[in-house]
């Protein structure tokens, strides 16, 4: 089990390296190609370490953790710290990340990050001194421009608006900010704080007419710029509409930021009392990321309170023209020239058009439902990985079986939808849910995200068993498949709903390039999921009816309900999802109390004819007559195959050899498969599980045999045989028939690895023990393996 877990970790490391390498080769993140080479080497190392020495694998895992996984975590932590204003921690975390990423070229960013750290620890003046020193030492023009941008940002951070504007106008040409979106937003606010509304209007025109205005990727930023301008121009109505209709999320703003802009607009419009009430709400709405917003609100609130207090004793102050004023007190109302007033109306209309075309997006709400589904699927797989147990272990965890369904185990319809059988499938599905789930949840909310995944997956599993009678009646036996697990159905539901939402009619504001990238990626994931889930030659997979039902339910969730759903509909969906989860919990409790192996021993519903013998098996055992390569050290032979074990990574087969054995001391497998005795050697079996040990201890005829199979000094499998002689009465009856076959038979259980026999020893022992010759003459009997459900 430890070796298997170690190989799983190596596989996970290889997948992480592959995903990282793809992202690096796409470029655009400022990371050097040298680091891509390092990650590529680690990918190859991890792949070749699978099945190799433990020492090599340990080194590969350690390198991946240190140079890929840990830097990724540090990057997320630094973003979290930056969003909350912990700039000193940003510098420390980024410095450590640069050390762990050889060839990335991140060390060039460290002086800038050091300046941000100084800002956090020692204030604006210390940061300014640091950047000015860097500017004196810089020789590259692009590097110098970036440093001066930081100086301007530091001055704006310290609310030294006029100094920041002066430094910008001294170092850069007039249209430079139109090419630097972040700088433009800060400069736009600075012009507003300094009362230079016409200059701010000119900057906004440059943004709208420049590359930013033509790029759909910057539509959100342009919306922020328009809202900023409207706030400082005193346009209360359009700003208030953004707040009241909660459209600020479409601009990437928090509720506290939107309330701040509304308060500024009220102050500029001379409505001081309302402004005080609005600005007072900012502190209540502020979250961990709104530290700077709180500082800005407090800076405006105190003068606004003073002005509001003066209003109680006197008439409102005189109105002034905005253009000639070098600065504007917060206690004064602003009056715009006619030309500027017209432009304000145009900007308000453009902002309104953008917000109407953009569906409500919950950008600053964590996709809790998405993460919850991902964690639940990963946790269930982790539990199975730690418990082991093969196919029966999956059933004990809640996998669905047609035998158990017939016995009334309805709860498995719910529990099986959360189970994955292999790590690669889990990783693909978790990635698909992460990518698609965020689209769904941020546009439609957590209730519909859960409905598109959980409810759709449960509906698919339910349809796979409820449709069985109809499919049999229609003669569609090949489609009458009951999948043991359905964890991939949730990924299918999430991808389907996300693809519907990515239609231009549903998200008109989304740029064509990111839309195309998302559609292509999700479509490839969906096709790969459907191909791997479709029932294969071994009879494994997910029922087609389950896939179609899941797609149908997810489609209804995405397109049949309005984007802006009424509150009652959200509550109804949430209640439905909650009820499904409660029933799921009850089903899990029922599953825990079941003993699937004991039930299958007593209720095997399938009768199989193989090599003149009758064997009673569970429905998950499937006829197999293929000669193909498999990732095991033993070949697949003509016989019966335990498909659930195969999906879980073990090979368990039941085969029959007819005829006398040339060497009774050797396994019949060596007679069945020509030439295999030159590849494998056999020794007496080690400790057998209890049912087989008891049978062999009580076997007076010596008809039971067990051997371990070895290849190159490694134990690669185990074979347990029961040798049957034709009953005397049946042999006498067939003696008169010269064409009859009177040869003895050997029924054998073949497992690789050898420990796979331990997964369901009672079931396998019962299958071998109750195998018997088919009564009646064998002449004319089909040589094909036939299985029928009784």
Automatic annotation (TrEMBL):
Record flagged with keyword Methyltransferase: no
Membrane topology (UniProt): Multi-pass membrane protein
Keyword Transmembrane helix: yes
Organism: Enhygromyxa salina
Keywords: Membrane, Transmembrane, Transmembrane helix
Localization terms from the record: Membrane
Gene Ontology MF, one: serine-type endopeptidase activity
CC annotations in GO: membrane
Protein name: Rhomboid family protein
Region (Disordered): 305-326
